[in-house]
């Protein structure tokens, strides 16, 4: 079997940057094409589990990421109706020793920059911005992509890292996104504007009827990230539109004043109607595969979308090594392990969304079940997720 010499990666988000780094590390020449004028991340915070740090360690950038991240003291879920704690998972030293890595929060720009700067140091990585791919042609000997200006780029293989609305996915699979009907508003709050009793060094999720809020510190607590989510009353279309404070308030009017006080602090009223996709049995054929949100878009309730993209990238590199440099064979191995794992995330996330948003008797049962668990119970339940490592990445988990 011949060794793969070159790859095109479409999309320069966290997934594309990590894939470029991972493939270059195993000797494949990478051309990354990004539609935006600059490669980077906008937006606010992101949570990273120990599995993400294992992936970052494998890519050789774990220490840099740790320096830029804030390690949390715990993760908690509060009942937004009565402000009582339902779940607390300690993420201190015992957790770090158990899973071999921290739970942390980090600014999106910081984690993206950490990965991308490392990729750029590798002479096998080159890139083009302002290059929107619009067409894919697969031949027996190579794969060609064409951008909207008509330029053609060729390589041995192609990895679509072009996000939830992936054109690479559309060119190989015939499936449709599934609009969740949930709407998200995001904000960054300066420390002085964050209510004092909520300046907590932990991701805190407040679960309410058909809604939830999440907040956590950014950049050492100088800022706080706030995400609010609710089930929309109207038919939604996947995408971003203008919203309003009145809309948000109307979904949270029955919750306890403690979490509700944060809604007054928000200054951005853009609304994201979210979507995921039903897991599929293949992410492409022969020379083409997918990675990150292009492969497995998922709602944010388990905070694992970017973590999965990092795991994908490491697994892809390990699969290439295991297949003696042949990426076409490696894609099969990669998909065989990544499809079930990421499908589990998609389905578990949907279930978590339902439980976070429970009301009435379901809320009472949820609280009873979760309040009764010990730290060891939670650690064991999270083992399949946070226990991922490079050493076991080619085994099904
Ligand atoms: C509210 C919210 C909170 C979240 N919180 C977390 C969290 O705490 N932890 C976590 O792990 N994950 C979280 N996620 C998920 C995470 O943000 C995504 O899973 C992750 O960013 C996906 O990265 P990606 O590189 O696969 O895709 P993207 O970030 O979408 O990148 C795709 C890139 O491809 C480019 N592109 C698209 N089409 C083309 C084209 N045709 N030609 C060229 N370029 C193209 C785009 O411009 C973009 O740069 C959250 C998501 C949301 C919405």
Automatic annotation (TrEMBL):
Assigned keywords, A-Z? Aromatic hydrocarbons catabolism, FAD, Flavoprotein, Monooxygenase, NAD, Oxidoreductase
> Broadest EC class?
oxidoreductase
The family annotation for this protein states: Belongs to the 3-hydroxybenzoate 6-hydroxylase family.
Q: What is this protein called?
A: 3-hydroxybenzoate 6-hydroxylase
Cofactor annotation? FAD
Give the enzyme's EC designation.
Answer: 1.14.13.24
Pfam families referenced in this protein's UniProt entry, alphabetically: FAD_binding_3
Give the signal sequence positions.
none
Q: What is the lineage of its organism?
A: Bacteria, Pseudomonadati, Pseudomonadota, Gammaproteobacteria, Enterobacterales
The superkingdom listed in its UniProt entry is Bacteria
Q: Which InterPro entries match?
A: FAD-bd, FAD-dep_Monooxygenase_BioMet, FAD/NAD-bd_sf
- Tell me the name of the encoding gene: mhbM
- Which reactions fall under this protein's catalytic activity? 3-hydroxybenzoate + NADH + O2 + H(+) = 2,5-dihydroxybenzoate + NAD(+) + H2O
Q: Which PANTHER family match?
A: GERANYLGERANYL DIPHOSPHATE REDUCTASE (PTHR13789:SF318), MONOOXYGENASE (PTHR13789)
Gene Ontology molecular function? 3-hydroxybenzoate 6-monooxygenase activity; FAD binding
Domain FAD-binding, chain residue ranges per copy: 7-344
Q: Does the keyword Glycoprotein apply?
A: no
């Amino acid at each position: 079997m011949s060794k793969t010499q070159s790859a095109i990666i479409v999309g320069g988000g966290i997934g594309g940057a990590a894939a470029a780094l991972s493939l270059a590390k195993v000797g494949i020449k990478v051309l990354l094409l990004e539609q935006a004028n600059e490669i980077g991340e906008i937006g606010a915070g992101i949570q990273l589990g120990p599995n993400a740090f294992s992936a970052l360690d494998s890519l050789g950038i774990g220490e840099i990421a740790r320096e830029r991240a804030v390690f949390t003291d715990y993760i908690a879920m509060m009942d937004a109706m009565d402000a009582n704690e339902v779940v607390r998972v300690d993420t201190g030293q015992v957790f770090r020793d158990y899973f071999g890595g921290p739970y942390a929060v980090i600014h999106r720009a910081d984690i993206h920059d950490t990965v991308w700067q490392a990729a750029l140091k590798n002479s096998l990585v080159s890139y083009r911005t302002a290059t929107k791919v619009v067409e894919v042609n697969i031949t027996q000997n190579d794969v060609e992509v064409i951008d909207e200006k008509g330029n053609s780029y060729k390589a041995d293989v192609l990895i679509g890292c072009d996000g939830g609305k992936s054109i690479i996915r559309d060119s190989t699979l015939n499936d449709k996104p599934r609009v969740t009907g949930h709407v998200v508003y995001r904000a960054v709050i300066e420390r002085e504007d964050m209510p004092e009793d909520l300046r907590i060094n932990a991701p805190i999720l407040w679960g309410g009827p058909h809604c939830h809020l999440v907040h956590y510190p950014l950049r050492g607590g100088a800022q706080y990230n706030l995400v609010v989510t609710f089930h929309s009353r109207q038919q939604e279309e996947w995408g971003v539109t203008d919203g309003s404070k009145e809309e948000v308030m109307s979904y949270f009017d029955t919750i306890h004043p403690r979490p509700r006080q944060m809604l007054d602090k928000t200054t951005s009223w853009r609304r994201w109607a979210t979507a995921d996709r039903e897991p599929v049995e293949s992410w492409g054929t022969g020379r083409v595969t997918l990675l990150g949100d292009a492969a497995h878009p998922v709602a944010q309730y388990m905070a694992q979308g970017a973590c999965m993209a990092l795991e994908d990238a490491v697994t892809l590199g390990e699969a290439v090594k295991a297949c003696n440099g042949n990426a076409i064979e490696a894609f099969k191995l990669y998909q065989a392990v990544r499809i079930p794992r990421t499908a589990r995330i998609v389905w578990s996330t949907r279930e978590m969304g339902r439980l976070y948003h429970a009301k009435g008797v379901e809320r009472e049962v949820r609280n009873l079940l979760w309040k009764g668990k010990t730290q060891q119970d939670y650690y064991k339940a999270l083992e399949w997720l946070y226990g991922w490592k490079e050493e076991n990445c080619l085994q099904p988990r």
